[in-house]
Amino acid sequence: MEVCLRIAAVIAFAILAGPVSAGDAGVKIGVLSDMSGPYSSITGPGSVVAAQMAIEDFGGKLFGTPITLVSADHQNKADLGSAIAKRWYDVEGVDAIFDVPNSAVALAIAGIADERKKIVGYSGASSSTLTGAACKATTSAWAYDTYSLVNGAVKFLARQGIDTWFFVALDSESGRAFEALGTQAIEGLNGKVLGVVRHPINTADFSSFLLQAQASKAKAIALANAGNDTVVSLRQAHEFQLPQSGQTVVALILVLADVKALGLETAQGAILSESFYWDTDDATRAWNKRFMDRHGSPADMMQAGVYSAVLHYLKSVEKAGTIDGRKVAATMKSLPIEDFYTHGASVRADGRVMRDMYIFRVKAPSESKGPWDLYQRLGKVDAVDAYPPLAQSSCPLVKP
Q1: pTM: predicted TM-score of the whole model, two decimal places
Q2: How far apart, in whole angstroms, are the C-alpha atoms of residue 368 and residue 361?
């Protein structure tokens, strides 16, 4: 509740303050997220906390002026997200926007940022198109994408003999991207996709979709959705006893908050990919304790990605000596990324942050040793294998 009140106060201040110039405001950062919808538990208020922590860890000031943070709820509407981005950039002097869960919103604001030579750092958006055909000079992607999530899971499970799949996918750009990339990976390993069903965002009842998946007899059922849609579909998959019947449920975007909401009894056995887990090492545990003290639950890869992106942006502004988006973006690509989550990584020419991915299995209740001890790590996918080679990129910034 305290975090939500703090966010509301920040948003209210940004509205009441009226038009300002970038020079008057110093460096100003915006977190554009889903604060109240299906992705709010995995991004939203937690992403604002992560951004504030990055600002504080940097020192809180740039060029002798306090760094300002504002936030807003795009409500998963591309037109609303675009309107907020335009106002932030044109009227309120925002220099950089971070998070942006929902690929449709992310794609809508990419062009706006490019026209205004402003920065966007995606952590919540999953579409590989953001670093492909829709890449821009001032945009970058920090936590994961559709390719890395589905590619690693497919390759890992293929080694376990799982060669038939069924997709339950969000009817959106990111859902279709999961389908296409997953099908490519599955067929490349001589597997088969036995069917696909699509659903609208915030679906309340997945029974008809899951019954089709069950009837297909596919060895793996891929949930190509996120947030509340993943929670509801996993709960109903358990009710229909899909895992108990021998079908492996693969949640392509599943985070700790989702598993906690479901409970291990319901979520156990689900396979997922993540680029971040709080219990990886001493550094992740120490940072996550600070995050939990403010937010009440552990960070996921999207929220950790916001921290990493904001901190690297501020370091780059300092090094570049300017808030000019094109110059800062170039500096972001030249500086190595170092923080509790990222070691020796870089931002590629297409805007992709190259980081390792991990394959996890949700633990059974008897395996868990604490309230947030929820995952067993099964394997690792190196960054060079987690993402497509730069030579294959459709990003117009990449020279052939």
Answers
A1: 0.86
A2: 12
